[in-house]
Amino acid sequence: MARKSGRRLTAVAALLTAVGLTSACGDGTETADAAGSPGNATSTAAGKPAQRTEPLTAAELRPALLTAEQVVGFEITGSSARDGAAEEPSYDAEETVSPEACRPVRDATKGDGEEAAAAQSTMYRGKSALAPRSTNLLSYSEEAARTRMTLLREALGTCDRFSFSNAFGKSSATSEVLDAPDLGDDTLRYRTLSRSDKGGFAWKLVTAVRVGGVIATMDVQEITGPLSPQKLATFKPEPGPDEAVIDRLVENVTDAQGA
């Protein structure tokens, strides 16, 4: 990785940590067994992919992450994969959400401890960009993935306003549900705006797509200091620039499910 990218990642990671928006997929080290264990599949009609009966492993998820050739115009700066749930952090970063029913809105891109495997990567739109795009793949049984998407949909229906508190302070947030593209088996898209008690703002745009037992999310984050409403609106992330790479990500996951 280039030194320039390393310095930028360090600065942005500090900002993301301060508002509690970092992803919990992995620590950047490869933990997957390269051989993996292929999931069981049942035969289907000719021309249709087999339906898996077991969750994908980390070794099967990792190839579904976007590659540099698939995201021309973006710079991928790191990736990781793991089997099982993420390890507990070594520092006290427990976050409370109020109402608690709104936690799925905060944690849509994170594992919940029930995932069989996960893979993650981070990219930027151009070498000088500061807003990261985080891609997270979470592998479940199909039933568990359906349930997780249902909980997120229900939370979005009632959590237009909520608050959260962590080791770095308190924040209030608003959310808005956006039109979602017709991808995979189920798709949700929403945007949140968080304001910390220290005066800063953080936008987050999340697209979540379920393909069988895999939930693929891409979130775009924009963090600012105190701004007027008019200036803050100019940082609002829009899905347009990312639609092509989201489409390709879903294709990759669909291929992995049918492998």
Give the SSE map.
Elements: H1 3-18, E1 41-42, E2 51-52, H2 58-61, E3 75-83, E4 96-98, H3 103-106, E5 117-124, E6 132-139, H4 142-158, E7 161-166, E8 169-177, E9 186-196, E10 201-211, E11 214-224, H5 229-233, H6 243-258
Antiparallel strand pairs: 1-2, 3-5, 4-7, 5-6, 6-11, 7-8, 8-9, 9-10, 10-11
Explain the overall architecture.
- There is one protein chain.
- With 259 residues, this protein is an alpha+beta fold.
- 24% of the residues lie in helices and 31% in strands.
- It contains 6 helices and 11 strands.
- It has helices at 3-18, 58-61, 103-106, 142-158, 229-233, 243-258; strands at residues 41-42, 51-52, 75-83, 96-98, 117-124, 132-139, 161-166, 169-177, 186-196, 201-211, 214-224.
- A 9-stranded antiparallel sheet has the order 3-5-6-11-10-9-8-7-4. The chain has a two-stranded antiparallel ribbon with strand order 1-2.
- A hairpin with a 2-residue loop joins β7 and β8 (169-177).
- The longest helix is centred in the middle third of the chain and has 17 residues, at 142-158.
- It starts with a helix and ends with a helix.
- The relative contact order is 0.17.
- Mean pLDDT is 82; it is low at 1-49.
